[in-house]
Amino acid sequence: IPLRSSVHTIILLLTCLAPRRIPGFVSAWSTSPKSSFFRTTPAFHSQLSTTVSPNDGAAMTTDSSPPSRVLFVGNSLTYVHNVDQWVQKLRQSSAGSGSGSSPALHIAKCVKGGASLKKLWQKTKAKRDIADGEFDMVVLQEDLPETTVELFEKFCRKFVAAARAADATPLLYQTWAYERLPEVTDEDIRRAHRSISEELGVEVADVGSARMRIAQEMPHLNLWSSDREHPSEVGAYLAALVLYRAMFQEPTLGIADRPELLEEKDAILLQTIVDNFDSEENE
């Protein structure tokens, strides 16, 4: 649905936000490590401008162009309501939003319902897809309530090494806790991703923190499917906004596509929060 936003609409909304003094808003282009839902690391401080050798951890220069071939590896938290396809829609739509010329984005996925990174490594063709697919980015989605931190770390290391061996940039898609397995909390998931991110020098798209923030600031939006585990279409759209920001380091504000049931003013506010949120406020 076209996002018929005007400059006056955006200014009005941002003006309304200002008196609320929402903590955690920073410049969309902050260079501080771990600022925004897209968390950078000291070893990998500029998106797609450096990578880390899997052999010695040293940074080396790589192509600084944005990704054009992306592989998503995950489970139903990726494919329910098509988080990956929403990223593609956002990229296509951004070409006409005034943010500049956006090259075509090819999206592929290797997904399996209920699968952890361990199962995706052992029971799917993910390794082969990474090695042979000529991707320049691999998005890795773990489902931590379904596995352990130790197994997440073990197979995250394997996937990150495989991606880098194929000259692809790894990106971690951090998900969320849910009611069916309440012993694992959002903070547990965030801490595990933070730890492996710092160890490997790999980026994190912090969708879990984004969901918590939107639940606080926009409680009228339903981010859940009926099972209270998977994302609703709006929840998938939010995840895609965070992933888009991480993948391209471009503002999402003004990108036209949005879910049919999401009002224009809510889409603008979602984009504004994603573009300006500082996850360090939650530390």
Write the SSE topology:
Blueprint: H1 7-17, E1 38-39, E2 50-52, E3 59-61, E4 69-74, H2 76-79, H3 83-94, E5 106-111, H4 117-123, H5 126-132, E6 137-141, H6 149-165, E7 169-174, H7 186-200, E8 203-206, H8 207-217, H9 233-248, H10 264-276
Parallel strand pairs: 4-5, 4-6, 6-7, 7-8
Antiparallel strand pairs: 1-8, 2-3
Helix pairs in contact: 1-10, 3-9, 6-7, 9-10
Structure write-up:
The chain has 283 residues and is an alpha/beta fold. Helix content is 40%, strand content 12%. The protein contains 10 helices and 8 strands. It has a 6-stranded mixed beta sheet with strand order 1-8-7-6-4-5, with helices on both faces. A two-stranded antiparallel ribbon has the order 2-3. β2 and β3 form a beta hairpin. α6 packs parallel to α7. The chain is globular.
Q: Structural class per helix/strand content?
A: alpha/beta
Question: DSSP helix count?
Answer: 10
Poorly predicted regions are 2-8, 10-35, 41-62, 279-283
Secondary-structure element order, N to C: HEEEEHHEHHEHEHEHHH
Q: Name the shape in a single word.
A: globular
Which whole number gives the mean pLDDT?
82
Supply database-style keywords.
single chain; disordered N terminus; 40% helix; two-stranded antiparallel ribbon; 6-stranded mixed β-sheet; 10 helices; 283 residues; alpha/beta; disordered C terminus
